[in-house]
Amino acid sequence: MKKLLSVLTSFLLVFGLSTSVYGDNSNMVRVGSLNINLDTYDESLLNKLLEDPSLSYDDAIYYAKLDKLVKEMEKQNIEFKLGESEQITSNISDDYVRLNTESFRERVLSLEEEAVKRALLSDIKLRSEGVTDLKNLSENYISSSREMPQQTFKVEYPDGSSVNFFTNTVEDDPEKVLSVFSPEDKREIEKGYDKGGNGDINIASSPFDGCTLAGAGGPNIAGPWSKTSCVDREFNKIYYDYGGLWPSGKTVQNTSRTEWSFSTPASYSKIQDLFSWQWYGVVKNPNTSPEYNFSVAPVRETGSTASAGVVQVYSENMNNSSKKGSGTNGRIQGYADAIFKVSGSFSATWGVLGIDVDAGKQWHQYAITEVNGWSEVMKYAGEYK
Predict the structure, then answer these.
(1) How many Å separate Cα 235 from the centre of its chain?
(2) Beta-strand pair 28-31/34-37
(3) Whole-angstrom distance, CA of residue 363 vs CA of residue 127
(4) Dihedral through CA 182, CA 183, CA 184, CA 187, nearest 10?
(5) How many CA atoms lie within 13 A of 224 on its CB side?
(6) What is the DSSP letter of 175?
(7) How many CB atoms lie within 10 A of CB 96?
């Protein structure tokens, strides 16, 4: 599915280098007296890029080469000096970039001025509007299909750039699960934390009910982000996994994956959250007047990041989990936090996430997972402006 952007982001650029830049061939770039051999690159980065299902092998190779080029430029203090005297314009069309991917990428890797400008423009547009477009795509999906959970969302732009969101929740091996609920916890759950509301069960018509009222306003548990977009929601996950029944008296452990990434000719960046959580519940009087006493608890919070090219990971904080309330209305949350920055080899006012970010400065991206006692799993992309 493609999302055509009607508004072009304006951007100011002065292109200048303290040393000459030109391409010798597709695998060797000379920057002044520096020769950069792009036949070799970081294999560990390549393997990390290949973990992303939205990237092809050729995509991963390109980003590995681009990352080596940018890092070598940083080591030599070589800059594309971006200023305010010249507006970014490019005579390279979206169709050319999309239909001539290999040749355009070679032009970027040879640091051809026009291609670099065009790549930067793609990056700006995507990071300015990508998360909002992803949310809109999710909402359109909700309105057209409620049959099964959607695991992959992708907004593809006219030049082939994309923002991607991947999510799933899977049950962990029951034989390897150690309950985090103590005997005392289970007794309290069985008594019912909130008897007044336990009879009012809210079962969706399907496992996926979209980011509707419950998640439209953002996560229930506040965090450091300034803006979030709900992209995916699994309603009553455990109820549907167990064939339309609640597994009364059983501890169930799931791991939810929330991952989103940007992919443009200038950069690639990804953040992933892996949140393991447990559910324990008891259904009393199931055949007469059911009473539902459920609870959830965080187990483990991990995640990962990846980046290549002009935008790079500066730092990451993967272990963030919390709990609010108890019983069926209680919620737990896990999130991954990554700080990204523009490479020091680029200097400009960047329209990233709707704010101005100078080269070397930083911004946060978050992958957030939240679960309540009804095993409703919400997935968010978060930003800090």
Answers:
(1) 21
(2) antiparallel
(3) 12
(4) 130
(5) 15
(6) G
(7) 15
What residue has token string 């560990």?
44
Which among 3, 351, 84, 372 has a CA at the least distance from the CA of 204?
372
Per-residue pLDDT tens for 282-323?
Answer: 998 888 888 889 999 999 999 999 999 999 999 999 989 999
- Helix ranges (H only) for 3-56 are 43-49
**Paired strand residues for 156:** 2, 162
For the chain, list the strands marked E by DSSP: 21-25, 28-31, 34-37, 80-81, 152-156, 162-171, 227-234, 251-263, 267-284, 291-309, 311-317, 321-324, 331-342, 346-347, 349-352, 355-358, 362-372, 377-384
Q: Are strands 21-25 and 331-342 parallel, antiparallel or unpaired?
A: unpaired
Distance CA 380, CA 230 (A): 4
Angle at 204 between CA 202 and CA 208, to 5 degrees: 135
Tokens of 296: 């959830």
pTM, to two decimals? 0.83
